[in-house]
Amino acid sequence: MAADALPHEQSISLLQRLIPQAMDSTTRSVIIAAAGAESWRLIDSRSSAAQSLDAKTEKIWLASLLPYWCQQLNSENSKANDDLRRNLQQHVHHDLAKSSARAQVWADAIAKLPSQAIANRFFECWLPEDRSVWQETISKAIDQTGMEPAEQESRATWLRFANSKQRHDWLDRVLATSASGTNQMATIEACLWADAKATTSALLDRFSGMTPRLQEPVLLALVSHPVAVIDLVDAIESKRVSIPQITATVRQRMSSHPKTEIRKRFAKLFESTEPTDLQLKEVIESYRVVLQRTSEKLPDTTSLERGKASFQKNCATCHRIGQDGQDVGPPLKSLHEKSPEQLLISILDPNREVDPRFQAYSVLVDDGRVLTGVIREESANQIVLAESGGKLTTIARAEVEQVKGNGYSLMPQGLQQQLTPDALAELIAWLRNVQTHPMDAFQR
User: Fold this and answer.
1) Buried b / exposed e along 73-95 (16+ C-beta atoms within 10 A)
2) Considering all CA atoms of the chain, what is the largest pairwise distance in Å, rounded to the nearest integer?
3) Nearest partner of 199 among 217, 221, 183, judged by Cα
4) Any idea what the Cα angle at residue 441 is, between residues 438 and 443, rounded to 5°?
5) What is the Cα–Cα distance from 235 to 28, expressed in whole angstroms?
6) What are the domain boundaries of the chain?
7) Which of 41, 45, 50 is nearest to 17 (CA)?
8) What confidence category does residue 230 fall into, taking pLDDT thresholds of 50, 70 and 90?
């Protein structure tokens, strides 16, 4: 980079001016590495360049800088470590002194770090008085008195930094009320980040009382967490969580877990319930009989509405049609050109033909997390993973311990457990009809 050849102050000044234009992660990484121990100055609000940054740009840069700082603070270079610690201490002290709103900016950025243990490296830089201001701000932020549901959801980020009683009380209230699924999962993810062991225990205690709408995302969150997944296996083995409560999507995620020991324990639990090739053929044949009978007549409005509802419930987390769903799996084009039987086999036996571009991959990150999805983009520096539900996660190559593709589709096998033969026939009818008469089918 040209900045390397300039005198130190000019180099930092040039890098600061590059910030507003450098919005992709690779360029940000290059700029941060070039700034090195002085990287804190890139967004130091006392500089004129940083003062001109808008809030969105600052948040993006903070999210990139914090992992770098935490990594440097854990390095063996004691002098560089001490210099960075001292500079960050001054930077945070000055920033928090400006206004209480600055605490929210820091909270949003720190919340993107993988775990509390990594965040603690950064908190150790802070002056005692800054920690006190921080904790006081958090206590006020998570006081739910008179708080609207939408505000609760936005404040869930702060739970990562609350004390254990505050987290426990908030989790209790959110799980016991008719809070939105988004609000509940934001709370669960924040609590897992701060204290996985206690949160997993609380979730498993309440699991049987959760609705199916919440049970699946909770199980997926536990499977992805390096600590929680062990307690989850124990819970299934001890029958605190029963096999029928585990959906096809969760089973697939369990069967492709990158940790061999965990994968073997899951396999042993499910070996008596997984269909053999012969059993799968029998299932397809039984569904084919119903499909042939129903496909001989034109679908009515009511059955099409039920078919659309089945798509939204079982397929929309990975597939999009019109305004419904997410672009994770293969695009659903020209479905009306496929026979009902072809669609039947694709749904019940998704691994028969898998497009390599949409093969499921499990990525083991160096903090122990397991992320599963379709690789949307990759470069020498990073991987972008599209997860079920449409969430895009960018992982730096340096943080990746293992990438494993098992040759399976991200689409789970075993949907016959969630769709009766009649329900699947209605889904197929809707899929074929919406391709032929898109506006008509969506108005229905």
Assistant:
1) beeeeeeeeebbbebbbebbeeb
2) 79
3) 221
4) 105
5) 43
6) 2-140, 146-246, 276-444
7) 50
8) very high
Q: Cα separations (Å) of 184 from 140, 142, 178, 240?
A: 20, 15, 9, 21
Long-range CB contacts for residues 8-13, cutoff 8 Å, separation at least 24: 8/38, 12/38, 12/41, 12/42, 13/49
- Per-residue pLDDT of 366-389, as tens digits, reads 888 889 888 888 776 788 999 888
Q: How far apart are CA 249 and CA 340, in angstroms?
A: 23
Instruction: List phi, psi (to 5°) of 53.
Output: -70, 140
Tell me which residue has tokens 């890139």.
Answer: 42
CA distance 381 to 312: 35
**CA–CA dist 206, 218 (Å, integer):** 11
pLDDT of residue 204: 94
Q: For 262-279, what is the mean pLDDT?
A: 77
- Residue 440 pLDDT: 42
CATH code assigned to 276-444: 2.30.30.100
Distance CA 42, CA 32 (A): 8
Q: Could you tell me whether strands 370-378 and 382-386 are parallel, antiparallel, or unpaired per DSSP bridges?
A: antiparallel
pTM for this structure?
0.65
Identity of the amino acid at 426? E
> 65 with 100: CB under 8 angstroms?
no
Q: How many CB atoms lie within 10 A of CB 303?
A: 20
**pLDDT at residue 234 tops 90:** yes
Question: Element (H or E) spanning 241, and its range?
Answer: none
The owner of tokens 């919406």 is: 434
Average pLDDT over residues 261-266: 91
The rounded distance, in Å, linking the Cα atoms of 348 and 249 is 13
Mean pLDDT across the chain: 82
Token pair belonging to 169: 């009380």
Token couple for 206: 């309440």
Model pLDDT for residues 32-46, shown as the tens digit of each residue: 888 887 888 887 766
Q: CA angle 155-153-391, nearest 5°?
A: 110
Write phi, then psi, for 374 (nearest 5 degrees). -100, 135
